[in-house]
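Expect chain and fold; see below:
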Amino acid sequence: MRLVIARCSVDYAGRLSAHLPLAQRLLMVKGDGSLLVHSDGGSYKPLNWMSPPCTLETTLPDEAQAAAGVVEVWKVTHKKTADQLIVSIHEVLHDSSHELGIDPGLQKDGVEAHLQKLLAEQIELLGDGHRLVRREYMTAIGPVDILATDASGASVAVELKRRGDIDGVEQLTRYLELMNRDPLLAPVSGVFAAQEIKPQARTLAEDRGIRCVVLDYDAMRGLDDSDSRLF
């Protein structure tokens, strides 16, 4: 992983356009080829990013860019969509590379991991016609708990929690933003599933078009003969 702290501006060009004006930021180039742009605020969410498969090309600035103070230009191009993330670097304050090795992955607690397994086996609880694609679908920013398809064949990303709060909705939102850039998956809808969902989290999820599903853990394990499994 390469970590660069630099004064830079960032432009995203493709199906959407976005501009980050000149400021001091952290540029993270990961081993999978992805590039993430972070500020000192906003917690763990990047300001912008390019997910793999993509290529990173470093060039010298042209005359106009050099006159504006640019010393180096990073051009990151997505191989499938041709979207581009262009980073105009004015000053490099730190540049280091680190070998992190193979990550063992997030270890979920017993109930959450069992919920994932049970829902994968009972995927129809999400609705008639739903089919499991796979558990732990890997993205550039982490694994989505479950990737499924609905009755129409459209992709559905499911984030599972024991107790659903706003952080879980934010996590699923980031996955959806990334996955909907992949033409092989898009459009991808989201399902936020938990044993209990806090009212604020439900409000935020519904405002973002994410469906909320409350899971009855005992019923899914066959310990409750109630016909009501989802609400």
The two ends are 43 Å apart (CA to CA). The longest helix spans residues 166-179. Residues 197 and 219 are 17 Å apart (CA to CA). Residues 226-231 have pLDDT under 50 and may be disordered.
